[in-house]
User: Fold this.
Amino acid sequence: MKLSLGENIRLLRRKKEITQEQLADALAVSFQAVSRWENGTTYPDIELLPAISEFFSVTVDELLGISEEEKERQAQELCEEFFQIQNKAECENLDEWYEKLANIIRKLRIDYAGCDAVWEFWLNSNECILQNKKVMPEVRRFAEARLAKVPGSIDVIEKMVAIEDDEYIETFLKRYATPCDIGRNELLRERYMFRHEYDKAAPLMNQKLFEVINDAVTRRPMYMNLKGKTLDEGKTLEHCFAENTTRLGILHAFAEETPTIKHPITCGKGIDY
Assistant:
C-alpha cells in the first residue's frame, strides 16, 4: 500500500502540473517529505490523507489505490462482523456490546457509506439495537452519510423515521421527506404504527381514507370507445373494468351497501342515492 500511495501522489501531482515544492507548500510540509512519499521511502501521516485527497479532488480510497471491488469486500466483512456481534448479546457485557456495534457503524459511515453492502446491514439490523442511546448517535450520522452518498434512499429514510427520537424527528422530516413517494404523512403513519402509537396514527389513517374516498368519488370513470381504446391510451378493457370496480367497491363499502347485478351503482336506491 505504501508504494501504491507514493505512486498515486506522483501521478496526481504530475496530472495537476505542479512541482513537489508547490505540493509541499499547499500541505504545509517540506518538499523533502513529498519526495520521500513519492519514492516510497516513507508515507504521509494518516491525518494528512484527507487533506491530500481534498487537494487532488479524489477520495482517500482512490488515493490509496483501493479498488471498488476491494472496498465492497471490506464493507461486507464489517457488516458480517456487525451481525455476528448483534446475535450474541447474552455472551457480552451490554455496555461493551453496544459500544462494539456503535464502533462498527462508525467505520461503515466513515469508509463505506456509499457501498452496496451497507444496504444489507441497514435492512437487517435490529431496530431496538439501533435505538439504544449508545448506538443511536452513530446511526444518525450513518444515515446522513448514506443519504449524502445515495440521495433518496427510501430504505434509510423509512427506517430512520420509525426509530428516530421525538426531539429529532421534525428536523429529519423537513430535510428528507418529499411530496411524492416518501411524503411526510406517509412516513409519520409508518412511524406511529411501528411504535404502536395508534392514537397518533389514527388522524393520519383517517386522512388517508378520506383521500382514497375522495379520489374514488371525484375521478372520472374510465371508458372504452368503439375501437377498443380508452380515453387514457394504453389502458386495456380489463384495466378499465378493474379500476372502475375498485372505485365502486370503495363507495359501496363507505355507504355500507351491497350492489346488485341490476343496480351496480345505485344498489336499487334510485339515481340520486
